[in-house]
């Protein structure tokens, strides 16, 4: 990115080494390993790298709803997202799917290079959510949150390559066990804590699954909300400006049936100062027009990246404010 700081034009590179070059690199090596041993596999395997995660996981949504015709033949999904900082832990999240959990538990009794911690709490939303919405059992492998996320400090220097190798070997073993095992069963009750069932009174529908998506100032494009409201009225915290803190904050929120914003939460933070401002500006949003599904207004959930930059370039970012 090119920006101006103290009157000087500078270029800054956001490498994304852990978020998510680590997951992509591991997927490519996993593909090589599984292809080498393909005679041992009882199922076909697709390897896909999804883009547009910052637009409510539009890449995985498009694959499942527009690009791939055999979605009903997908038995399970393995999501590798931010797996390079193993010194902070290695986690597996299945949304409490009994069959996927059973594979993890059975492998715990075998000699493995590393064992993940099964967590009932979703570390953060990722592409597995789009698969859940299609009733496809999914498991997320991750090393979790890390402070360099969304900043120029997300470089090779923070990657724990030795632990990544052990994670890869475990995920390969898990993949083989899943591929050659029985089809895991999807249970809607597994989604407790993510979204309610679509037909229930308290259902919260993913933004891209609404028949008519929520709109802001007449537009259903989330970029309009960012440009016309968030970046127009957001105040860059003075202390963050002094310390040169910038990055992208992933914020999750619900648009209820009356078009009001509620349940605003930070899913991937950068710094407490920026996180708090992102929550504040989204919480203060004017009313939207709510989403519709099957002829009724519904609650819908959206996740957006709010980007903090010290000077605006192009359509996004934020100029330094003197407040």
Task: Provide the descriptors you would attach to this structure in a database record.
323 residues, alpha/beta, Aminopeptidase, Fusion Protein Consisting Of Minor Coat Protein, Glycine Rich Linker, Tola, And A His Tag, Chain: A, Domain 2, 2 domains, 5-stranded mixed sheet, 4-stranded mixed sheet, 8 helices, 11 strands, globular
How do the helices and strands line up, and which of them pair or pack?
Elements: E1 2-5, E2 8-11, H1 17-36, H2 58-67, E3 77-80, E4 91-93, H3 98-108, E5 117-118, H4 128-132, E6 138-142, H5 161-180, E7 204-206, H6 222-233, H7 238-242, E8 247-255, E9 261-268, H8 272-283, E10 291-293, E11 296-308
Parallel strand pairs: 3-6, 4-5, 7-11
Antiparallel strand pairs: 1-2, 4-6, 8-9, 8-11, 10-11
Helix pairs in contact: 1-5
Briefly say what this structure is.
This protein is α/β, with parallel strands linked by helices.
Structural summary, described in words:
Helix content is about 30%, strand content about 20%. The two termini are about 25 Å apart. It is built from eight helices and eleven strands. The chain folds into two domains: about 1-190, Aminopeptidase (3-Layer(aba) Sandwich), CATH 3.40.630; about 205-310, Fusion Protein Consisting Of Minor Coat Protein, Glycine Rich Linker, Tola, And A His Tag, Chain: A, Domain 2 (2-Layer Sandwich).
Distance between the termini: 25 Å
Low-confidence blocks of residues: 312-323
CATH superfamily (homologous) name of the largest domain: Zn peptidases
Helix content: 25-40%
Q: How many domain regions?
A: 2
Q: Write down the Rg.
A: 21 Å
In terms of DSSP E residues, the strand content is 15-25%
Shape, per Cα inertia axes: globular
CATH topology of the largest domain: Aminopeptidase
CATH top level assignment of the largest domain: Alpha Beta
Overall mean pLDDT stands at 85
Number of helical regions: 8
Q: What is the helix/strand order? A: EEHHEEHEHEHEHHEEHEE
How many strand units? 11
Taking the sheet with the most strands, its summary is: 5 strands, mixed
Give the name of the CATH architecture of the largest domain: 3-Layer(aba) Sandwich
């Amino acid at each position: 990115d090119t920006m101006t700081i103290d009157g000087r034009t500078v270029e800054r590179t956001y490498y994304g080494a852990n978020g998510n070059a680590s997951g992509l690199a591991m997927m490519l090596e996993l593909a090589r390993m599984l292809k080498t041993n393909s005679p041992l596999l009882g199922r076909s395997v697709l390897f896909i790298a999804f883009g547009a995660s910052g637009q409510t996981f539009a890449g995985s949504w498009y694959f499942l709803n527009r690009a791939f015709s055999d979605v009903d033949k997908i038995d399970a999904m393995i999501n590798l997202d931010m797996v390079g900082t193993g010194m902070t832990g290695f986690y597996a999240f299945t949304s409490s799917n009994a069959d996927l959990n059973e594979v993890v538990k059975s492998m715990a009794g075998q000699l493995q290079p590393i064992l993940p911690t099964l967590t009932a709490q979703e570390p953060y939303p990722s592409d597995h959510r789009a698969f859940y919405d299609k009733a496809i059992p999914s498991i997320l492998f991750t090393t979790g949150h890390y402070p360099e996320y969304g900043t120029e400090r997300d470089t090779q220097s923070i990657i724990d390559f030795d632990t990544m190798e052990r994670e890869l070997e475990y995920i390969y073993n898990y993949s083989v066990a899943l591929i050659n095992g029985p089809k895991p069963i999807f249970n809607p009750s597994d989604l407790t804590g993510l979204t309610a069932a679509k037909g229930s009174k308290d259902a919260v529908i993913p933004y891209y699954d609404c028949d008519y998506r929520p709109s802001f100032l007449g537009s259903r494009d989330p970029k309009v909300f960012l440009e016309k409201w968030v970046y127009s009225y957001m105040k860059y915290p003075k202390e963050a400006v002094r310390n040169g803190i910038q990055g992208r904050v992933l914020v999750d929120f619900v648009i209820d049936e009356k078009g009001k914003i509620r349940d605003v939460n930070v899913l991937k933070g950068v710094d407490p100062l920026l996180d708090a401002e992102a929550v504040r500006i989204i919480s203060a949003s004017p009313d939207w027009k709510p989403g519709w599904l099957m002829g009724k207004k519904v609650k819908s959930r959206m996740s957006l990246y709010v980007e903090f930059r010290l000077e605006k370039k192009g359509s996004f970012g934020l100029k330094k404010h003197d407040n």
